[in-house]
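Hi C.,

You asked whether I'd gotten around to modeling the 281-residue construct. I have! Everything is below, sequence then structure, no commentary in between.
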Amino acid sequence: MKTAIVTDSTAYISKEIRDAYNIHMIPLTVILGNEIYEEEINLKAEQFYEEVRLKDLPTTSQPPIGKFVELFEKLAADYDEVVCVHLSSGISGTYQGAVTAGTMVEGIKVYPFDSEVSCMVQGFFAIEGAKLVQEGKSAAEIIRILEELKTSSHAYFMVDDLSNLQRGGRLSSAQALIGSLLQVKPLLHFADKVIVPFEKIRTKKKAMKRMVELMAEATKGEQFQTVIIHGNRQKEAEEWKKELEMEFPNIEFTISYFGAVIGTHLGEGAMGMGWIRKRTS
C-alpha cells in the first residue's frame, strides 16, 4: 500500500520541508481587499502583514470541496490511501471538507485526522505522519499513532491586540473592550477543538513567561519538540528561542509563524508556543 500525506496551509510547513517529506498541501483562501488569495501559495505571511495594515480586515474560507476531490483524484494515480492532517474542526470546516471529499473519490481511501489545533503543532503531526510513511506504516497505523501523540500536544498563544479577534467574531465586543481598557494580554488555547481564554494576564512579558511555565510543567524532563510561533515578530522569536534553549536542553525548539489565515484572527504581534512529545518508536 502506498500512503500519501496531505495537510492544509495553516500548518505553515515550509515548502522545503514539505518537499523533503513529500507532504501535499491544500490552501485555505484569504480575501484581502478586492483580491482573492490562496494562503502560502500567492500570499505569504510577510506580504499579508504589510497589506492588512492598509486594508479592511480580510475574510478567510476553507478549501472548496472540489479542491479536495481534485487533489485526491490526482493522488489516486500513485497512491492507495491518504492521511489528511487538518486544523481543528472546531474553528474551520476544512477537516469536514476532507471527510466529505473522501466519500466522493474512487481508487484511494481517505483517512482524515483532526489535529484539534493549528499552525506548526498541526505541522508536527503532518511531519510525523510523513516519517511513519517512510517507516512503512499504513494509514490506519499512522492515524492510531497520531491519536496517541495528540494526548501530549498543546498550544497556547497571546494576542497583542484584541481587535482582530473581536472583528472576526472570535471574541465578543464586551470582552474586547474590557481587555483593551485593562491592557490585558489574554492567554488563549484550544479546548474541545475551539479557541477559548485560558488566563487573563496583564502584560506581554508575563504572558510569555506563563507559556514557558506551562510548557515546563507539561514536558517534565521528557523529550519534546516545541515551536515558538510569532505574528510578524521574527527577531523577538529568535531571541526567545535562544533563552529557552539554554534553560531546556532536553527540548528541541523551532520557530514558525502565524500566516494569513490565523493572523487574520490573532493579528500582528501575537506570540504562541506549542509542543508535542517526541516519538520513540
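If it helps when you're writing up: Residues 119-134 form the longest helix (16 residues).

Thanks,
B.
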